[in-house]
Amino acid sequence: MSATTATSMILDAALAYHDRGCWVTVCCDPTHEPGKCIVPRKYPCTSPGKAPINSGWQSKRLTANQIRELFTKHAGANVGIKWGAESGLIDVEADTPEAERVLQELLDESQFPELVLIPTYTSRRGYHRLFRWCEVLPKAVVKLFDIEFRCGGDGKGAQSVVPPSRHVSGQQYQWQEFLSLDDVDPPELPPYIVRLLRLNEGIEDE
């Protein structure tokens, strides 16, 4: 796939995410050398392809025209989504076989219905599953049993690179078959898991 084709696909996806109400971020080109980002930064970029290049992404939402302008100016950029109330979504990442095993156990313990599908995509390291955001979730990013729950909601924000972005390895982020946001509505995170997250952060239920 040519760089031009990849950029066109990623731009189309970014505009589609924007149209469905997601808070879109535009992230740097994964081919840049570590520490030498495509935009000036206060601190060196050590995560090629993952760091937003739109200044103030935590508080300034891009318009469709601004998204187009950024991809026109920075061919090769990736697309991300800011999680939390604004997008109405959270990202649950299991990036090791052990984390994946524990997540499945948590879903079983919470009696999550087997027939309920979850939007799921793969990165180089593992699986990302999208659930609906709710206001009782802890803020920012919570690590529980090596599973990363990116809930958003604090001043720093929480975002992830999403399909069809490219990883620094050259691998493409991909939706699992029939499990994209176009195919499946994100379900709610089971209350049992929400309670575990709150307890992990020292939040007591009233």
Keywords:
20% strand; three-stranded antiparallel beta sheet; 206 residues; alpha+beta
What is the structure about, briefly put?
The chain is an alpha+beta fold and 206 residues long. The chain contains four helices and nine strands. It has helices at 3-19, 64-73, 97-109, 191-200; strands spanning 23-27, 78-82, 89-94, 120-122, 127-132, 140-144, 147-152, 159-161, 174-175.
Architecture blueprint of SSEs:
Elements lengths: L2 H17 L3 E5 L36 H10 L4 E5 L6 E6 L2 H13 L10 E3 L4 E6 L7 E5 L2 E6 L6 E3 L12 E2 L15 H10 L6
Antiparallel strand pairs: 1-2, 2-8, 3-5, 3-7, 4-5, 4-9, 6-7
Helix pairs in contact: 1-2
Mind explaining what this structure looks like?
It is a single chain. This protein is an alpha+beta fold and 206 residues long. The protein is 24% helix and 20% strand. It is built from four helices and nine strands; from the N terminus they run αβαββαββββββα. The chain has a six-stranded antiparallel beta sheet with strand order 6-7-3-5-4-9. β6 and β7 form a beta hairpin. α1 packs antiparallel against α2. The model has no long low-confidence stretch (mean pLDDT 92).
Rg calc? 17 Å
Strand content: 15-25%
Helix content: 10-25%
Count of extended strands: 9
Name the poorly predicted regions: none
N- and C-termini, Cα separation:
54 Å
Q: Overall mean pLDDT score?
A: 92
- List the quaternary state of the chains: single chain
The shape, in one word, is globular
Task: Give the strand order of the largest sheet, numbering strands 1, 2, ... along the chain.
Answer: 6-7-3-5-4-9
Elements, N to C (H/E)? HEHEEHEEEEEEH
Structure classification? alpha+beta
Number of helices: 4
Biggest sheet features: 6 strands, antiparallel
